[in-house]
Amino acid sequence: MIAENDHNENIRIGVYVCHCGSNIASVVDCVAVAEYAGTLPGVVISRDQGYTCSEPGQNQIKNDIGEFELNRIVVASCSPRLHEATFRQCVSQAGLNSYLLEMANIREQCSWVHGGNAQEATSKAMNLVRSAVARVSLLQAREETEVPIRRSTLVIGGGVAGIQAALDLADAGYRVVLVEKQPSIGGIMARLDKTFPTMDCSI
Amino acid sequence: MTDAGRHPNITLLTMSEVKELTGVVGNFHVRILKRARYVKEKECTACGDCVEVCPVIIPDEFNMGLSSRRAIYSPFPQAVPGAFAVDINQCLGHSPVICGKCVEACKKRCIDFDMNDEELEFDVGTIIVATGMDAYDPTILDEYGYTRYENVVTSMELERLVNAGGPTAGEVIRLTDGKVPKSVSFIQCVGSRSQRRGRPYCSNICCMNTVKSTILLKEHYPDIEIKVFYLDIRAFGKGFEDLFRRSRGKGVRYIRGLPGTIKQDPATHDLILTVENTATNELDTHRTQMVVLAVGVEPPADMKAIQEMLALQTTADGFYLEAHPKLQPVDSASRGIFFAGCAEGPKDIKESVTQASAAAARAMRLMNPGVLTVEAITAEVDPERCTSCGVCARVCPYNAISVDRATKLPAKVTEAACAGCGTCAAECPEDAIVMNHFTDAQIEAQIDAILENDAAGKILVFACNWCSYAGADFAGVSRLRYPSNTRLVRTMCSGRVHAKFIWRAFEKGAPVVLVSGCHIGDCHYINANHWTERRVKRVWNRMGKLGLRTERLGLEWISAAEGVRFQQVMERMEQIRKSVTPEEIAETVRIIKKISEQKQG
Fold first, then answer.
1. A149–B372 CB contact, under 8 Å
2. Which CATH number is B442's domain given?
3. Residue at a domain's end among B419, B435, B451
């Protein structure tokens, strides 16, 4: 049977609002966002921090997970495409499943694009945190699986870059398939006479 | 080059092209077409007996058409593999009646016209894309007279002329009279740094290539007069400034300003350049015996096929888009695919080699542990609800779901093959598929939270992780302003966006909803966004029938590099949002509520 959300689970959320130096804080009122986050359902602790991705920032999260028995974390900072991996690692080091994390993108999709209106940006940041808190409450622990990876590489193109990559890999013991559409490898480089800055032969 | 040809770990396939690529990181399956060489690669000793008897004479593309070759040929003396090849499109044929002279001439009997194109298949863990560049074709720039004046050549043609292995054995000559020119003028930025024609970017290599060529020319012919017409000389790399100084020290004149026109003196075939010298603000004319156009670098014309096969994206300049311009410059957005050399942007040899080694190291880093951790974002079937209808199996881009309709057993997901796009969960008519980490409940909670207060003021956007969400991030990195009432809900793929999410948003009072994803053909889940398109069309249809304005539901493809496009789309959505009245929203809510009540009833 599918694991439905365990309604008996006592959701305890920690919210961390990052200033990112002045990247976020110069537009968004991070203190107000953190205060607002504290009022949301399930939120046990909310803080604003200078740099959440920094070591002190991450340590704060780890400490709080222990101290407040947090089981869900929301980081309101940059794009998850940048730092989701960082914070997943952070929460898992504190013993929490890394999938119990959600990020609210209040930098790339808020402070950096709504610089002209601090008030609207702050209210958007609050709303993004609100949405992240709603989502994180329903997230479930997930276990990552490991699959075998073949120790071989396809290199498409036999110019100087393709040749170099193929040789590096082959020398390190990996199998390489080097595909070139011309009758010879060498590419543009093979047509050049001397090459800068050493002024030596290209081939 | 020879190292690559004889390395025991390298399977070198020339005259070959990738035809099909399936699978995911760790286990890509590739189908390669190896065209017939008609010469036995391992046996040919490159003696050249065959070439002497071949009657076909055609321009030699390796020498930029400055010399000729035969239909059986080796592209250049140091070619790897060294074996000759038959250009079958030019060959007269091997029937003794017509020709077949080479077959007779080859004493080792290496020529085999019975050879066929082969299809080879390989399984690989990672891929490095090193598809290179094309040199800019200056034909369109008529003012430089490349097509009209024979003594105007490109920098690539000069490379062959000055090369000891080239058509003139290293003698730089004018094509009109075969004499060494007494004066040569270089024109920089041909096809580069132009907003009107050619390419807007700096091609990175042409300045130093010209500096190099001037030194070579001065070494070959100390009395030759050389002028270089330029916009800026970009000698930014290690040792570059030194080389530039050497060039000037040898008497090469660098003149700031590009010629407006080039005319030919019909008597001497000399060329007359009219140039505004921007350092002195004077209009000068220069007479020269030969002009070299320092042509820029372009993405190769045939890169589209590979791009589509690997679902890679390009930046506005046409080169491949890296996962991050500073922190992951050789990674693509797709795990296990890396870039080396000019595929990612114009580069000189040193940079290409550096990047190639980096790409190799990134690939090794992934492969070395022998196992790969896969994100746990996979689909799961609820066997109680599944009716074995088979829709999920049909829409899955990875064939990761199997359903046996005959036995009526519930659908089964092969977790290792599931990439997590969520299309199956969005298409399942029974809601029997849970997309882990992007469940219906989780996404609906976000929709509800966003629309909880002032729904009428919001623009709700579903954005796929790889393209449109990344495009929004790129708009942020570029500090492009757009309406602050936009709210993004991220899914891995637009294929995950269930029609019921859209209806729910409208029911909660959303004035407008946008579904956005990768461009068709660029989807990170092969073709899952085709299903997105079909689904949105279905919703439009239904909206039309219910009397709802269909333009309130947008469908846009926005790539990771299209920050500007993201901004424009948001502004357009805001215009549409403003046109939606509170009455219209109330009516929409009433209609949808009524339908859901009827359903429940």
1. yes
2. 3.40.50
3. B435
